[in-house]
Structure formats: C-alpha cells, structure tokens
Design goal:
Layout (H helix, E strand, L loop, with lengths): L9 H10 L3 H4 L4 H13 L7 E5 L5 H6 L5 E6 L2 H13 L5 E5 L12 E7 L7 H14 E12 L4 H6 L17 H11 L2 E8 L6 H8 L9 E7 L5
Parallel strand pairs: 1-2, 1-4, 2-3, 4-5
Antiparallel strand pairs: 5-7, 6-7
Length: 237
C-alpha cells in the first residue's frame, strides 16, 4: 500500500485524470466509453422508473447515458473539477432528471433508502483498503430494500494491467492504489449484508483481442480484463 506521505488526494487525482489522461477517456462517443457503458449495463440495466446514484462519476459518462432511460440520476465525485466539467456539459445537454454532487463516496449526503441502483464503475481501484468498506456501507445506506450495487473494476492479473504497472508499453496509473480481486469484492459485499447476484470476469474493448479474451478468460487469468460484481440489498433490510 502507498504510504501516507504519498496518499493520492483530490489535487493528485485531478492532475492525473483531468490534465494528462488521453482523449479516449474524455470522448463519450468513443469506442472505450461506449464499451464501458455497454458492459456496465450488462451487469444490470435499470428500468425506466428507477433512480440511480453513480459514485465516482468522473466525466459523467454513465450519467448522461442513463438520464434518458431512468427516472433520476445523481453523479457523485470528490473532485470539484469533475463535477464542474459534468455541470458544464449538462448546460449543453440538459436533462431535468440529472444532477451532480461534489462529495465523498463514503458520505454523499443524499437521502438514504430511496435508490434502486448504485454504480461504482472504475472506482474501487482508486480506494485505499480502509476506505472501501465505507463506500460499500454508503451504498447500502442509499439503496432501498431490493436495490442493487453494480461494481466494475480492472483485474490486476490481466496482461495489459501487469505490463502497465511495470511501466512497460503503458504508463502506470498512480491513482490505482489498491486493486480488488473478484473474491475480495464478493466477500466485502457479503460481509456488508448484500446478496451476490452476479460475479464474473469480462473482456477488454480492443478489437480482435476481446474475442480471444472472451473465449479463454475462464481458464487463462491474464486474459481477464475486468471484474464485474452485482450485489443486492435483501428485501426487508
């Protein structure tokens, strides 16, 4: 784990993601973001009447994709720059059922027990171990009984992720402070009271490569690009 003196804070996160990251992250219509939306909706696609919270909303990719399809969406990010960018886009692409909140994912300030879906896509790899349980507890608080928590995160054992973390071919992401395995995520959700509805590996977005990954990832760990987990808050909780 990264030492306290090197802890990634809001300023470091802003510098890494909004100053130096590539155009593929900023283009909502690009191949990578379309892949993210499609695969996260494969985990769970909310119905038209459902209300959604997106923790770690970044550029608002999921929020703008979901706004035309659901009753309400709230994007939450601890980065003021993220929220400012999302709100600016919202003035250009208005959706009356969409808003953005600058808050810690462990304490959003949103009303609890009223939400159908909490999305945490590409968030848990940015959370220090001691913060992860707090985010899961907040998701539990937000969700109504029967509501769902959808998690999408990189698999550290994938070949590209392994090379990147050694600064081979791609540059390591210093904000990826703690990768979670599929089993660890399952255990954290179970310990928090969630039922596990789905837990699986998924392929990458790269043409050609993704077909090989999809065919072989069950048996070959370094072809498992992403982890997907869906937890459900039991009825009566």
């Amino acid at each position: 784990m990264t030492g306290p003196q090197h802890r990634i804070d809001r300023e470091a996160y802003d510098a890494q993601y909004f100053d130096v990251r590539g155009a593929h992250l900023k283009d909502p219509g690009g191949r990578f973001q379309r892949y993210r939306v499609r695969k996260v909706l494969d985990i769970y696609a909310p119905a038209p009447g459902e209300r959604v919270v997106d923790l770690g909303c970044g550029w608002g990719t999921f929020d703008f994709a979901l706004a035309p399809r659901v009753a309400e969406v709230v994007g939450v990010d601890f980065s003021e720059r993220s929220v400012a960018l999302c709100r600016r886009r919202l003035t250009e692409e208005p959706h009356p059922n969409l808003r953005f909140v600058c808050a810690d994912a462990r304490a959003t300030g949103l009303v609890g027990g009223e939400w159908d879906l909490v999305i945490a896509a590409d968030l848990f790899e940015h959370l220090y171990p001691e913060d992860s349980e707090g985010v899961i507890a907040e998701a539990w608080r937000l969700l109504r009984p029967g509501g769902r928590l959808s998690i999408w995160t990189p698999h550290r054992g994938h070949l590209v992720e392994a090379l990147k973390n050694r600064d081979v071919l791609l540059k390591a992401d210093p904000t990826h402070v703690d990768y979670k395995s599929l089993e660890r995520l399952r255990r954290m959700l179970l310990d928090a009271g969630f039922e596990i509805e789905r837990a699986y590996y998924a392929e990458s977005h790269l043409p050609g490569v993704r077909h090989v990954e999809r065919a072989l990832l069950r048996w070959v760990p370094f072809l498992r690009r992403r982890i997907a987990v869906l937890g459900r808050k039991p009825a009566g909780q």
